[in-house]
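Quick one, probably user error.
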């Protein structure tokens, strides 16, 4: 198995989170809370954790997923959009440790990069994720879980009260019609958004909403 020297060695779909995470950490202050919905194999969580480590800021980071469903996804990889390299990554770890759990697989990258203390992995259905946080407490939330329209919309509605002033909710795959519909519906219903970025092309495909 290829030795992990950066988050880029971990299979995943980090996409625009790669640069947005850096932007958020640069503007974050000590005591801020950041979170992501959708961990998969830990590529994006290792990116965020590495940025936090390098920043030397006291930032609390939560990576939220239903981790048992990740293994189920890769056991049926022929029916998903994930490349075979994702399954090969899992199998290479299982060859080294046959009884390894999916949580150990997810945490493998963070441990090798020595950033595991900068991320807390939380097993939670995304529809309940907002209950983890107090109102007006979260600096940043990245949504990259279930892309169904009702799910994305409900994530936005449920999590928006948790975002602090000048905080951000952003997410991947704005070009997908369900995501676009959810985000546009949410924007029309809110007048407390101070910055809106909507991109749906090859190089940029994300939404970004900053709270007034």
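Nope, works fine. Designed sequence:
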């Amino acid at each position: 198995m290829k030795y992990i020297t950066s988050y880029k060695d971990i299979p995943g779909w980090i996409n625009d989170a790669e640069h947005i995470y850096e932007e958020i950490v640069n503007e974050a202050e000590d005591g801020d809370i950041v979170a992501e919905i959708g961990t998969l194999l830990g590529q994006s969580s290792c990116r965020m954790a590495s940025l936090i480590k390098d920043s030397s800021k006291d930032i609390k980071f939560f990576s939220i997923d239903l981790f048992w469903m990740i293994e189920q996804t890769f056991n049926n990889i022929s029916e998903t959009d994930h490349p075979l390299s994702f399954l090969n990554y899992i199998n290479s770890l299982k060859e080294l440790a046959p009884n390894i759990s999916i949580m150990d697989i997810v945490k493998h990258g963070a441990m090798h990069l020595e950033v595991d203390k900068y991320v807390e992995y939380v097993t939670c259905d995304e529809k309940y994720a907002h209950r983890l946080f107090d109102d007006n407490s979260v600096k940043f939330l990245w949504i990259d879980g279930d892309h169904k329209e009702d799910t994305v919309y409900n994530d936005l509605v449920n999590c928006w009260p948790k975002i602090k002033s000048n905080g951000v909710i952003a997410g991947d795959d704005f070009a997908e019609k369900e995501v676009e519909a959810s985000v546009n519906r949410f924007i029309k219903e809110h007048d407390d958004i101070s910055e809106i970025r909507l991109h749906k092309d090859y190089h940029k495909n994300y939404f970004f909403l900053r709270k007034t």
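The CA atoms of residues 153 and 183 lie 7 Å apart.
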